Amino acid sequence: MRTRSNLVVAFVAATVLVAGCSWNGTQENRTQEASASPLASGPSLVQAPALPGAQPISGNDRVYTADQVSNTVSVIDPKTNTVLGTIALGQPRLAPAADVLGAMYKGEIDVHGLGFSRDGRWLDVIDVTTNAVHVIDTATNKVVRTVYVGRAPHEGFFSPDGNRLWVAVRGLNYVSVIDWRAGREAERIYMEDGPSKVVFSPNGKLAYVNHMHAQVLDVIDVASRKIVNRVPIPVEAGGSSDEAISPDGREIWLGMPMNGRTTAVVNAQTYKVEAVLRTGPRTNHPNFVTVDRIDYAYQTVGGLNETLVYRRSHNGTPPKLVKTIHNDGFGSHGIWPSPDNTRIYVALQNSDAVDVIDTRTMSVIKNMRIGQSPMALVYVARSGPAATTQNLGKQGLGVRAENIPLQLPGISGKGSVLIRELPGIDEVDIGAYMLPPNQTFTAYGSDGTHVTALMSMNSNELGNIDEGLSYSYFFANHYTSVFLKAGTPNRSASPGK
C-alpha cells in the first residue's frame, strides 16, 4: 500500500493529527476526528479535499467525469493528464440505431452524479433519468452492481465505512440508503422536497443533505439515521444543487443554480449561514484547497465560464474573492482537487472538456477533451495499481463540438452557443443571461444567406436562459452563426436584423 508523504497518523483521543501543521487561532493543530471505519485503522490514502500533508498525485489515481450526453464516465490519469477512455453505461443521446427514446431501449440515460468510497476501491455513478445507481470497481473499470431507486436521483456517496450508498433522490423527498453488495435499498430517510446531494463530515459521524426545492440544509446522525438539525437557508440564496464540506469540517458551501446569483456558506459548528455571495448565473459546484497555509474555496460558475477563488474566513466574516479564473471552455460544472492540494480539476459541460488548474498560480495549465457534456467530477486516490485501459472504450471521445458567440441584434444581454455532434443529428445548446426577463425569444441558425428557426424559449424572471436545446443538421447545413430575436418564429428574419 502506498505510504503518505510528509504525513504522520497518530490515534490520540480518536483524532488524526497531521504532523507539522500548526496555525494560530481557529486553525491551531488542524485536527480531524478519525472515522470509526476499518479504513481508519492504519496508514491509508487521504481522499481530497484534504488537509495539507496528503500523498502526492499518483499514476494509480483516477479523475472521473459523468458525461450526460454520451452516457459515459470518462477516465483520466492525473499523473500524466491523459484521457484513458470511457465507460459506457448507455448509448449517446438520440442515437437512432439504439432507439434511445423508444419503448424498447434498455440502456441508461443522463449519466450525471459521482461519488466514491474512502479507500478508493469503488466509484458510484448516478443516472438521473433512468434512476440507476452503478458501482464500478476502480481497478478494472467494470460495473459490479446496479441498483434502481426512486425518481430522478442526483448525487450519492459511500458511507464512511464503505458498506452503504447514500443517494439523494431529488425527484422525491428522501435519501435512499443502499446495501450495494446485496443490491437492494435498505432504508429511506424522509425529509423536505428535492434532496440533491449527500456529503459526510470528515469524522464520518454526520451527513449533510442540501435541497433543490426546499431552502434548508439537513444534518443527519449517521449511526441513527435521524435528522438532528435543519439549517434554514435564506430566501435570497434559492435552491441548492451541489454542496461540499471543507476538509477541516468547518464549512459547508452550497452552489445555487436556480436564481443564478448566489452561494451560501454555512458554519458547520454553529449552523449559521455566514455569507450569501453573489457569484453569477448557473453557480454550480464548490470545493476546497489549502496552499501555503491559506485556505481557499473554489466555486464554478457555468453561465460565466469561470471558476471563482475565495479566501476562506475563520472569524465569521464573509470570504474574500481573490481570483477569477477564466476557464478554457464553456459551462464550468463539477470540480475536485488532488489530495496534495496542488491541482484542481474542472469539468466543462459545454465544451466536453476538463481544465487542470495549478492551485499555486491559480491558472489553467491543461485542457483535455473528454466525453460529451461532463457534469460531476471527482478525483479518487487509489493505493493499488489500476488497470490502464481494461474495460474502457472510446464512446463520446473525439466527437465534434464547437462554441460560438450568440448574436443578440437589438437585444441587451450576453450568451454563447454549443454545437455538438450526435449520432444522426447535431445538438444546439444555447445559454444566455442579462436578457429582458420573462420574454419569449426565438433562435435562428444562419449560413450568412439563409435563415432557419431552430427553437423558441423563454427567459426567466432574472433574464436568463440557462439551457435551450434544439436538434438539427447544423454542421451539414453549413450554418456559421446563431442569433436571437424577440417573439416567435417569422419568415422575414434575417442575419443581424
SSE blueprint and pairings:
Layout: E1 11-12, E2 15-17, E3 31-33, E4 62-67, E5 72-77, E6 82-88, E7 111-116, E8 122-127, E9 132-137, E10 142-148, E11 153-158, E12 165-169, E13 174-179, E14 184-190, E15 195-200, E16 206-211, E17 216-221, E18 226-232, E19 242-245, E20 251-255, E21 262-267, E22 273-278, E23 283-291, E24 294-301, E25 306-311, E26 320-326, E27 332-337, E28 343-348, E29 353-358, E30 363-369, E31 374-380, E32 401-407, E33 414-422, E34 425-433, E35 440-446, E36 451-458, E37 465-472, E38 481-486
Parallel strand pairs: 32-38
Antiparallel strand pairs: 1-2, 2-3, 4-5, 4-31, 5-6, 7-8, 8-9, 9-10, 11-12, 12-13, 13-14, 15-16, 16-17, 17-18, 19-20, 20-21, 21-22, 23-24, 24-25, 25-26, 27-28, 28-29, 29-30, 32-33, 33-34, 34-37, 35-36, 35-38
Please explain how this structure is put together.
With 497 residues, the protein is mostly beta strands. 0% of the residues lie in helices and 48% in strands. The strands form nine sheets. The chain has a seven-stranded mixed sheet with strand order 36-35-38-32-33-34-37, with no helix packed on it. Strands 6-5-4-31 form a four-stranded antiparallel sheet, with no helix packed on it. A hairpin with a 2-residue loop joins strand 1 (11-12) and strand 2 (15-17). The chain is globular and about 65 Å long.
